Amino acid sequence: MRALMLIAICSVTLAAQQAAAPRVTSQDLLDGLKDPTRWLTYSGEYNGQRHSPLTQITPENVHQLSAQWTFQTGTLGSFQTTPIVVDGVLYVTGFNNNAWAIDARSGRPIWRYRRELPEDLHNCCGPVNRGFGVLGDRLFMTTIDAHLLALDMRTGGIVYDVQLEDYKVGYSATVAPLVVKDKVIIGIAGAEYGIRGFIDAYDVQTGKRAWRFYTVAGPGEPGGRTWPQGEAYKRGGGSIWVTGTYDPQLNLVFFGTGNPGPDYYSNAREGDNLYTASLVALDADTGQLRWYYQFTPHDVHDWDSTQVPVLGDLTMNGQPRKVVMFANRNGFFYTLDRLTGKPIVAKPFVETTWAKEIGSDGRPVLLPGHLPDEDGTKTCPDLGGGTNYMSPSYDPTTRLFFVTARETCATYFAFDQKFKPGEQYESGGTQRPRDQKNFGALRAIDPVTATLKWEFRYTSVSSAGVLTTASGLVFAGDGDGNILAFDSRSGKNLWHYQLGFSMRSTAGTTYLLDGRQYLLVPSGSTLTAFALPRS
Amino acid sequence: MRPLVWLALLFGTGALLLAQEPPAANPAANNPHLGNPESIRGGMTLYRVRCGECHGLDASGYRGPDLIAVLSGGATDERLFQTIRKGVPGTEMPPTTSPDDELLMIIAYLRKIGTVAPPASPIGNVENGRRLFASQCMSCHSVAGRGGRLGPDLSRIGASRSHGALVREIRTPSEWVPPSYETVTLVTKDGERIRGTKKNEDVFSIQVMDLRERIQGYLKSNLQQVIYEPGSLMPAFDSARLNDSDLTDLVAYLSTLRIRN
Hints:
The complex is a heterodimer. By secondary structure, chain A is mainly beta. Chain A has helices at about 1-20, 25-30; strands at about 50, 65-70, 85, 90-95, 100-105, 110-115, 135, 140, 145-150, 160-165, 180, 185, 200-205, 210-215, 245, 250-255, 280-285, 290-295, 310-315, 320-325, 330-335, 345-350, 355-360, 365, 375-380, 395, 400-405, 410-415, 430, 440-445, 450-455, 465-470, 475, 480-485, 495-500, 510-515, 515-525, 525-530. By secondary structure, chain B is of the alpha+beta class. Chain B folds into three domains: about 30-115, Cytochrome c-like domain (Cytochrome Bc1 Complex, Chain D, domain 2), CATH 1.10.760.10; about 125-175 and about 235-255, Orthogonal Bundle (Cytochrome Bc1 Complex, Chain D, domain 2); about 180-230, SH3 type barrels. Chain B has helices spanning about 1-20, 35-50, 50-55, 65-70, 75-85, 100-115, 125-135, 155-160, 165-170, 245-255; strands spanning about 140-145, 145, 180-190, 195-200, 205-210, 215-220, 225-230. Chain B starts with a helix and ends in a 6-residue tail after the last helix.
């Protein structure tokens, strides 16, 4: 009897030890897609390239892709999420901070989390969410009422719930957390409500805040003089709502920052308005600013720079360079030096009427007549920008950068508006010119020269992201509900499938399961998994 | 135990009474701000701050729907009020706790920009305009369910278009063609030509209503050519086709069209 008891105790202890082994380690995050059965960060890799090493689906066989299963949320609202994939299970966030663990083999749900949200939320652009971060056995999610949650991966139960700021005055959070070493790095949204933006890091274990970097410089701080004296900086915007990237060698995190507030009325905030509409490079351990580059000084067109900063190594003018590639909402594509933030090359990738070029001092050379006013001024691109929150992709084999481009124009208006906490604070708006024919395109850009290599035009504008694979494929989405596959070298369209709703923000992700490569596509309130026929 | 039962009964009765109470009147049913210039100015300011970003400063839609089209489609002020108050679940349209008066001022502003008031005294002969409409327009346009479907339904056109706009759209219809009524000609691989209005399109397919009012989708891979015609299918009614007097009568008739549902 005693021997049996001992065996039983040993078994329980062993089981407990097995259960205690963390599912995802910091090393796993560093390794990224080296293990292609997993997709652990927003862009798949810390470098933001959204490029998978998988080669089972090829230009030759991609036309054989077919839907394997569909998961429907049963909720209102559409996905803007990138699912996390860990050991055969998908972890997915949705509208109104619903979240699910889903069997990646069958599409069947395992658990569901739903947040009780207050009724008096302030949110400019829908209660969306862009995905989980993961470390150990924990998932991390930001919420529309400006909290950070840690959930137990096994149950969806809350481990901790930390308030970031007060949602009642317009703060909200939609970004997928970036987990770096022992920190969960997030950003705050709400610039359309006159908030002061920031990037925060929280301790993975305790949820205690480790550092904060304000994206709007205050009085007496470096950059503080780029704001008028007084309280303008307190409502200066600079939201963070798209996940940044990380360079482990430099120990720097890179985040694009949002538009200044109020959006359109120039007189409310004279100056460059640092660090809005910029790329900031922060020390991952301390949050200290290492360098910044402001794409649109004193932005008055709502052109957030909250695009994914894509890290890569290029040979430029015969020299190896560590770079950041950035297709900006203001219509310019930039290749920046990753060590200094200085632009190496920058050119428009869509029609831009507001700036002639980027000067040798790194500032845009402005064209006259593009300051919004009471009568309205026509400018290209529109407030949605040359591109926006949809993820780009970089294929290091072809050395091409792929982006969903928008060809648009708008008439911009501006007027004075009194600030009232909790009320929208944009001081203007836009109208689409009646004769304006907007369209979208997938564009392949050479980041060494910032020139277009090929494009595939859509009939309407699209907000879908891009994914590339090492087999030479580009997956993208149009604005009409199609997911499409292209030959990455030629731009030839090889396959498409009508999903019923366009992909927004998100791109497809891909992973290997039981030796089979899946393409996972969130669109509308459905997730669809595609694969080749079983051989 | 008995007091508890009584309490429960009392509460139950209260709930029943509450349930039987008539629903609260919708404030938009009696909107004191309609037509009041000061309220309309206030409504404009509120609209610009709270609504313009999504619905466009001219209310013709951006991320959110075209409110002018909603109004000209017959949406009631009560429905507008409820939508603004409660928001639209599952969309970017939030609910609001703002005072009723502010919502009513926004509605007064939208009514001002989205609705054309009937002329104090009709200019032109409405009866002759009705006859002209029946002979010249009805094969393509419908009113109250009667007429063709190739062109837009005109049952409420009088409430959404000014006199000047109606004249312009009759004389020069190709100046601006509304979405869903753009002209296309599809050429099949057999050489057959199908002309009609484009209802929808993506890279791979196109959906049209042909001249026989048949709706049909086509895969572009099965077509030889898709010809996008710059003008409207509607002919230009210049003065040779419709003299100024008849035009005035036709516009007079169209201005009377304000049929809801």
